[in-house]
Amino acid sequence: MAHKQHKKQQTKVEKRPIDLLFEQYALYHQQGTNQFIHWFVVPLMTFSISGIIWSIPFPHLNFLGQYNGFINWFTLFMAVVVYYYLRLAPTLSYVMLLTFGLFSYLIVHLEYWEQAGGPTLWSVCLILLIISCIGQFIGYKTEQKKPSFSIGLQFLLTGPIWLWHVIFKKLKFPY
């Protein structure tokens, strides 16, 4: 009898921390409308937060010379977040690094627009953040649950990689 029980325990696959995190996150995203809304508002929220962090003045570092503009609060934030993702699931961290690269490209173009007389980067991103928060609350209203990001930073950081994990699962791509 003990042999059979030991064999059952051996065949039981231990879940990775990332899988447990996704299971917890999914509990707040059961309803189809909420899931659909999240496909738009999570990337928008992630982008807008990235742009707001980018907008925070960063000290000029003379030793960087011509590369001084490439280091800012967002690049430091991005490095920490990508490292966090790397610890959870390397493949997802790589795709988030590419996502942040795309966001950086778009943010730089918003800076060009600002320099040409357009609105400030931070104001555009603040408006996008407000729109994405409204969308989040609409989604959670249909779910009849409080927003998962209100639980803490970990759930706020989970949203973007949760979307990528859904794509990876559909493509049967390991993460």
Automatic annotation (TrEMBL):
<feature type="transmembrane region" description="Helical">
    <location>
        <begin position="120"/>
        <end position="139"/>
    </location>
</feature>
<keyword id="KW-0812">Transmembrane</keyword>
<feature type="transmembrane region" description="Helical">
    <location>
        <begin position="36"/>
        <end position="58"/>
    </location>
</feature>
<protein>
    <submittedName>
        <fullName>DUF962 domain-containing protein</fullName>
    </submittedName>
</protein>
<keyword id="KW-0472">Membrane</keyword>
<dbReference type="Pfam" id="PF06127">
    <property type="entry name" value="Mpo1-like"/>
</dbReference>
<feature type="transmembrane region" description="Helical">
    <location>
        <begin position="91"/>
        <end position="108"/>
    </location>
</feature>
<dbReference type="InterPro" id="IPR009305">
    <property type="entry name" value="Mpo1-like"/>
</dbReference>
<keyword id="KW-1133">Transmembrane helix</keyword>
<feature type="transmembrane region" description="Helical">
    <location>
        <begin position="151"/>
        <end position="168"/>
    </location>
</feature>
<feature type="transmembrane region" description="Helical">
    <location>
        <begin position="70"/>
        <end position="86"/>
    </location>
</feature>
